[in-house]
Amino acid sequence: MNTLTARRAEPPRPQIPAGQRVYAVGDVHGRLDLLLPLLAHIRDDSAARADADAHVVLLGDLVDRGPYSAETVEYAISGLPSFATFHILMGNHEEAMLRALDPHEDRATNLWLKFGGYETLASYGMPVALLGEELPPAETLRHYIPERHRQFLDSLPDAIRFGDYVLVHAGIRPGVALEDQNPSDMRWIRQEFLTSKGDHGAFIVHGHSISTEPDLQANRMGIDTGAYRSGTLTALGLEGERRWLIQASVIDGEVQTKLSSLG
Fold it and tell me: Which of 126, 100, 104 is CA-nearest to residue 113?
């Protein structure tokens, strides 16, 4: 064979272990109105396929910016459906919220109010009169945010792996072994990860960095489609080598869901 003209072999696709099916859901940001119909479509989609051990992974950032943060956390604690095993990851917005609830944290460096904390506190019923430019004392916040919500958020893991896929909120630090990743990077990293073309030791599925459409690259896929502002919440379905999308979107004032294939 002429090595100058031979077509380079395509690298093998990452795989989910046999017998498993995984759905990753992008950043919810208080859009429970989108999450509920999306999960209903995921349930029906999984039921229409062959029997499998189904898992649903929420990629973090349940809270902030959208209108239903308190309700979303409560749903994650006590309202999730039983058709799959659910896993919820820690996002940078959960981290900021937890820091705001910690009386020992430096409040001057916590910008939680400025990137979504106002909306979250409003969803918990905190009067607007108590919200100024400065972050209220932790004791004041804890009066409105149930302790079981704080404990739930504090217990969230940073990543989960299924076969060749690692699911994480923001991404990973290129060049660092997966088992040595820093939690801060997994919750906050952006440009260094997004621009990396190298092999990460697994195919990374992440949220955190908004794109108009799901961002599929050779070594990663971002599925944060900015639900809080775009009105579209995206889920990625994975089984074996197969991949597909399910999205819930506000269209003409109503939430509609759709299934689409993914190459």
Answer: 100
Contact (CB, 8 A) for 57 and 78? no
Tell me if 34 sits within 8 A of 248, measured CB to CB: yes
Which alpha helices (DSSP H) does 65-137 contain, by range? Answer: 69-78, 92-100, 117-123
Q: Tens digit of pLDDT for each residue in 99-151?
A: 999 999 988 888 999 999 999 999 999 998 888 888 999 999 999 999 999 99
Question: CA 125, CA 104: separation in Å to the nearest integer?
Answer: 24
Crossing angle of helices 92-100 and 147-154, rounded to 10°: 130
Sequence-separated (6 or more) residues with CB below 8 Å from residue 211: 222, 224, 225, 226
Give dist(CA 210, CA 225) in Å, integer.
5
Name the 3-class secondary structure at 92.
helix
C-alpha dist (Å) from residue 43 to 78, 85, 237, 246, 253: 18, 12, 11, 11, 23
Helix (H) or strand (E) holding 41: helix 32-48
Give whole-number Cα distances, 216 to 79, 212, 222, 224, 230, in Å.
31, 12, 7, 12, 19
User: If you ran DSSP here, which 8-state letter would residue 18 be given?
Assistant: T
Query: What's the pTM value of the predicted model, to 2 decimals?
Result: 0.95
